[in-house]
Amino acid sequence: MSLGRGNGMPDKNKFTMIPIKRTDVFQTIIQHITNFLDSKQIKPGERLPSERELASMLNVSRTSVRQALKVLESSGRIETRVGSGTFLAEPPAVSLSDTHSLERLIEGGVTKEFLRNLIVARTSIERAIFEDYAWRANKSGINQLRELIELNREKFSCQDCDDDDSALDLSFEKKVARLGGNPILINMQEQLHHLWVLAWRQYGFTPEQTEVLHEEHLAILDALAAKNSARVADLIVQHVDKEID
Known about the structure:
Number of helices: 11
Number of strands: 4
Largest sheet: 2 strands, antiparallel
Protein name: HTH gntR-type domain-containing protein
Distance between the termini: 42 Å
Strand order of the largest sheet: 1-2
Number of domains: 2
CATH class of the largest domain: Mainly Alpha
Oligomer: single chain
CATH topology of the largest domain: Four Helix Bundle (Hemerythrin (Met), subunit A)
InterPro entries: GntR_C (IPR011711), TF_FadR/GntR_C (IPR008920), Tscrpt_reg_HTH_GntR (IPR000524), WH-like_DNA-bd_sf (IPR036388), WH_DNA-bd_sf (IPR036390)
Structural class: mainly alpha
Domain HTH gntR-type: 23-91
GO molecular function: DNA binding; DNA-binding transcription factor activity
Pfam families: FCD, GntR
Strand content: under 5%
Order of helices and strands: EEHHHEEHHHHHHHH
């Protein structure tokens, strides 16, 4: 089968998706979809085929497709709009590194030491992003963040969603970075988010329960609304710096 352009419909003259038979299904799904995105058959802002359509084309489960899409979303390649679908994201204004070079860091496996180093790196970037935005937060941005938190709560409370997806959702942090508007920090965050999701999935453990993350997001939002940068910094550090079992 093949993927059409924008409307999610098959087109025999377009990019061909070959059903997956290898054992490394998760990574292979990511590669297939990445190849499709790189083929330039859809433009930024256009919709990808649905999870169900992709699963049928690749002969894999919807859960595997959903997990692969989550990784691509964390790296900034795609964006999910609740109730509308998944869309090709606008390319970042600045590209600082190759995502594939980061992936090579975990080719030999993910250890507790690697995760601790990853936590340190992500904590530094998120703190810089959130402290910077705390000074410029306005009513419009706060309302957008509050709406996103509520949408995520509804999204991940549905029966069809699994805990792994919700516990590794980074859309709140990504939205704050976008509102802050620093292209260098945005790009660095995207790279770390991509590695974060891949590493925790490979480790086979998620750092926190969905309900806890939801409450932490609300507390961070309240601190942002109050423009309390010191409180924001403390909360985001606590939010990212989790115990590793």
